[in-house]
Amino acid sequence: MMPLLQVENLCFAYPGNPMLFKNLHLEIFPKEKVCIIGKNGAGKTTLFYIIMGLLGPLLKGKIILEGKEIRTKKDLRYLRRKVGFLLQDPEDQLFCPTLFDDVLFGPLNMGLSKDEAFTKAWQVLKMLNIEDLAHKPPYALSGGQKRLGALAAVLAMDPELLLLDEPSNGLDEEAWKNLIFILRNIDKAIVIASHDTNFLEHVVSHWYELSSGKLRFLSKTPGRIL
Amino acid sequence: MGQGGEEVVSVINVHALDYHDETSYGFLRRVPSSLKVVLTVAVAICIAVLNSFSAQVFLLAYSIFLVAISRIPLKTLLKRLIALDGFVLMIWLTLPFFSEDGMRMAALITIRVHAAVLAFMALLQTTSMPELLQALNQLHIPRKLIVLLHFTYRYVHVLGEEALKIQHGMILRGFAPSLNLSTFRTYGNLIGMLLIRSIMRSQRVYDAMLLRGFDGSFPFSTRQAKLSRPDVVRIVMLFASLMGCLVV
Amino acid sequence: MHISEGVLSVHTLAIGAACAVIGVAAGLKKMEIDKVPRVGIVSAALFVSSLVHINVGPTSVHLVLNGIGGLLLGLKLFPAYLVALFLQVLLFQFGGLAVLGVNTSTMALSGIIGGYLGRCIISSGKPPWLGGAIAGGVGVVLAGVFTALALAFSGDVFVVTAKLVLFAHIPVVIIESIIGAFVMTFIFKAMPSFVGECKKWE
To answer: What structural domains does chain C harbor?
Structure first.
């Protein structure tokens, strides 16, 4: 089977800083649930930013999606549709007047018609069980609701792969369990960067560790049941 | 925050940033937001332009009527008016003593200030920010200005909370403000920190917009409730009765 | 700091509104739609900062920061102020709708002039604190002068009030200069690229 996303020979350094990634490799297959653990500053968030084409230039290496290297702006636009990135702070991702507008934002920019975008938005909100919040402004939502809202906004673009940056941060127990339930039932490839090993044990099956610029495969564990 | 912390530091009150309470505003909540914006502007212009006492008294009565039907809690209302009346008091303490016409002017200003504030509160506190943005959009206010209003209001909440956290950190490290240079330095650092965080956040938000395919357009969803016939009649009467200020 | 509703004469309000329309239009022209979110977020930070109160004797003054705003945002301060003052009416009932034009013009124009001087000082190689102090100080001095002019222009009754306003500005000018100096010192220490970053948004 062809990997969905490949990172090949990635070398990267912030200007004036030592090398952060040295020939880093990563392969994600469809529907695979993977986590990346590592110390603060190891570069987990940076790796996600590089995959999404938000940071550059790369010193060396390729980002390959569905077997095709990302080179042009058009490729990048396609990648940003296929790969959804949930930022660490949902406040950064909920920038519209209401949650519904936020979920609509991606589909409309993808060129869907208004009706199609509306249908899509409601479908995602229903899936996450947050339809009741649709017309609330983001500052009226709780921490857990904001997280789900941002996830809805990402899912509305129908990505094949989700990159989640510390998704369990700041959630209370109920929201924490709810998010595990949702992620287990999403039929997409997921990569989670997190410190919350308890959370990860419930969701992922493949463990990687990012340290000294390289990704090291740790183990395969079957996802635990809550 | 520790005991007594609140009185030591004049903290930013983040909760004051919500002006709109969704629970129970009667008829005025059903009036389309764009009409409310038009009416607000119309009332403000009438108050500013008309100079006769009788017209101003009429407008004050009109505003009081609006507030009465807005169902804004009396407590909220009084809190706002008390803040306002400090200014009115200053007018009464200065104007009558420095000019023959001062007494009349002070009275007129008092009426005007109250009329303007009451009308504004009745009409716009019954309008949530998403509705307001949508209304401004329908009224063809420049798109960039609406987006600017939206982003400012949206991130005032986020940055307000950040400011609070920084302040708590300051207090925990023993900061007690007084009128000296080190207090000013601390405030300068607080503001500098807030500005730097805002610019870093603005980068992340912009990234998040790009990731969702932002290409310069910004949608405002329109959600319009159907008006019942009695409501239409009420709205027409509301606008028509404002004309009264021109004839009294 | 700014003028309340119901005080100024119609022609003052009209002139203020006309100035504001020109200023806001110029400011909007200076920013592309995709930079608006970023200006809004920095403007939100300025709004929150201006809620800081400093106790001076029995009363407290709140910060104005129009000069620092001008230093960072340049002409874009005009639309930023229109929005911020509108929010102040909405949230706190400060000012009012009819007087919005006058208040936007006095605050933004003074801030832009102060900020421009501050920028010149910093880019000529002088220390950032000096630029911040000049921006903060000049911004508030001019805001006071413009506000007093608007009052005096509205009728002889207000001449005394106008003088009072000017007088009341003196402590604020001192505070704003000092705060401005510290803010710019901090910013240049913690993130030297900040001002350049803001300029890029034009």
So the answer is: 10-197 (1.10.1760.20)
